[in-house]
Amino acid sequence: MESGNGMEKRVTSGKRSGKSKEEWRAERGVEMEKSGFEEGCIHVTDESIIVLAENCPYLLELDLTECNQITDKSIQLVLENCNQLRELRLGGCVKLTDDAFTKTMPSCFDQLRILDLTNCNLLTDVSIQTITSSASKLRVLILAKCSLITDKGVYSIANIGKYLHYLHLGHCSRITDYSITHLTRHCTRLRYLDLARCTQLTDVSVFDMAHLPEIRRIGLVKCGNITDQAIYALIDSRVVDRRLERVHLSYCVNISVGAVLELINACPRLIHLSLTGVPAFQRPDLQQFGRPPPKDYSQHQRQMFCVFSGKGVRELRHHLNILDSTMGNRYSSRMGGTGYDISEGDNDVDIVEVDGYGEQN
């Protein structure tokens, strides 16, 4: 445990006077700067977190992921007492409501850089307005599965401006092109933007994403209104193609082989491309270059799985360019077909968490 002055400080074992482990550690916690509970500690309650907040005012990081017994009461005290927090992870704390943030959050919480509220699905735009007004220098904001968030909340996020680098809005199905275009025009240093299952979005949102100079990863899984025109916008901007590394297009059923070929030719840094459930890529000659599907997938899911990484992206690029040249530039003409027809089926393959960025198939 590293202290602010470079000295290592540790909480050592000793008599706990009948107190719980969490309470004992918390009361010794005037020296603590980082605290995390093993993910999925479902028996951690407000009582322990309140003791922690009262005795550890200099906490810099607090991870309560999947501590699903936590309520507004303890988080209010954390925000009130621990005003040095730089990282707060509350993913899966499903009992939290707007009161957790609107009652006691300081008017200025500028030191907070990372906030994870995954699946805190009782939160509304009111919380987002409070958070973004107080923590105006957030770099990472994760709101995946916060299903009550609307365009109003996204407009509030846009006020963070150039400080915001990473934004996850997956499953926020109420948001539309209006707020995403506003967001991308104000948060111009975004590097990662995940909009998976934001089903109301269209190509219009991507047209503005194409002008983000720092964007490296784009998630559009199950954004079924996305077409080739969005892909061509990314290419034609001549901004995104220099940095783009990962693109998630699974279940964007209107994407063609031709558009993908132009994308991978234009983006030399591209190392990950997901096209699971895209009809144009349900072809053995293309899927052969993809990663093997997870072992726990059903037969149908395995057939739909289509994810290219690293060497697979390079091999797909090479294969499609050869096909294109032998077919008279059919694909790269921007008028190319989508390859083989396949019958429609159940497209519901779960998003798979692969790394710290919430990488999707």
TrEMBL record:
F-box/LRR-repeat protein 15-like leucin rich repeat domain residues: 68-283
GO BP terms in the entry: SCF-dependent proteasomal ubiquitin-dependent protein catabolic process
Stored Pfam families: DUF7885 (PF25372)
GO cellular component, one term: SCF ubiquitin ligase complex
Residue ranges, annotated region (Disordered): 1-27
Name of protein: 7239_t:CDS:1
Natural source organism: Paraglomus occultum
